[in-house]
Amino acid sequence: MAGLTDAAPHVLIVDDDRRIRELISSFLASHGLRISTAANALEAREKMRGLAFDLIVLDIMMSGESGIELTRAIRRQKNRIPILLLSALAETSDRLNGLQSGSDDYLPKPFDPMELLLRIRNILRRSNQVPAIGNEVRFGECTFHVSRGELRRNGELVRLTTRERELLRLFVERSGHAISRNELMNPGAGENARTIDVQINRLRRKIEADPASPVYLQTIRGAGYTLYLD
User: Fold this and answer.
1) Is residue 1 domain-resident?
2) pTM of the prediction?
């Protein structure tokens, strides 16, 4: 569409319903996004091999490989491209299943195109806040190897639970930015705000010299938590 530049976010729309693909594409393009489309998972894979996308809007119920299966495959490849799932299934269990597959958001059909646009913008804004980091970062007495999920304090290996490792990776990737309790929650694990607070306190005991007066993993009043790196 005229007026779009190479700097505009590039979104891949994957849906086996041609009418929906065209409607979504036209609406999003009219609001400044670059759009590519695919009719199924196989075509989406082909597009992803040749182009770099900023976000994927992916229908769950497609013939052949489903949107859930494609999402899981993308995450197994350690590809962190944001994924927003669309589905006619609106039950809570369906939404949780979609989020547990590794997607960043889930929008039931039918939906207002403006809501889709706002959700896309929110996801892109969050992803753009992620700073470029090395594979190993330091804070205080600690060194964290991001890809291995390995934490050392004064050179000694510190045992982390799987959840603590996930949280620490997220904090490192978005260091210096407040992350709300809602963003930190794992919906499929039945977590709530209190659960997150408990996990943060446990993590502080492993990385802070004085967990009661944290220097690195700090509370941002009214916003959540943030990690400051050296």
Assistant:
1) no
2) 0.56
